Amino acid sequence: MGMNTLEPDLEAGGQPSILKQSSHPVCLIFHFLFRVAAICIYFFGTWFTDNFVLIFVLCVLMLVFDFWTVKNVSGRLLVGLRWWNENREDGTTTWLFESRDPSRPLNPVDSRLFWTGLYVAPAIWFAFGIICVLTFKLTWLLIVAVALALNFANVIGYTQCDKDAKQKWATGFASNMLGGSGAGGLMGGLMSRGITRMAGSIF
């Protein structure tokens, strides 16, 4: 009887799970799956094997899968951003950014967890690197170096992409306010209505 009385309260007052709040639950899972797997293999791998080469290969595979997933899938679906590099004929590299339409709102759960995962993972690997130096396990720094390189590539790419998107949205909003859309824009419309009212009161 006690359980029956508690169930309605939990259904009425309880919060839905994170996956139910997410607009892309499968993508959200894979946003964390490979990076968590790499960290777990690195940290707990020696519990199951003494073969460093095997641990290194498994960690690098998970890190590469994570890099590709975050760069090409989860960033586009969870926060509406995408970045990539193009090599020019003169040998230089240029950054290209893609962002969502600002009129399309983001899911706050997806956005918060995307940025949390993006920044927390390299912080964990940086801590692992410090531990390696302090304990003189310099061989393990090879895995940490690969992890930091791939994680920071996405951190820098998405940070710059987000900055670029905000600048584009601000520029577009300002142009609309100053007359870039509709019949003269918002400011133009206000000015024309004001002039019309002044003319009507005079004549």
UniProtKB/TrEMBL annotation:
The chain crosses the membrane at residues 26-45, 51-70, 113-136, 142-159. One of its GO terms (biological process) is protein secretion. The gene is FAM18A. The keyword DNA damage does not apply. Golgi membrane protein involved in vesicular trafficking. InterPro entries: TVP23-like (IPR008564). It comes from Entomortierella chlamydospora. One of its GO terms (cellular component) is Golgi membrane. Belongs to the TVP23 family. It comes from the Eukaryota. Pfam families: DUF846. The keyword Lipid biosynthesis does not apply. Keywords: Golgi apparatus, Membrane, Transmembrane, Transmembrane helix. It is found in: Golgi apparatus membrane; Membrane. It is a multi-pass membrane protein. This is Golgi apparatus membrane protein TVP23.
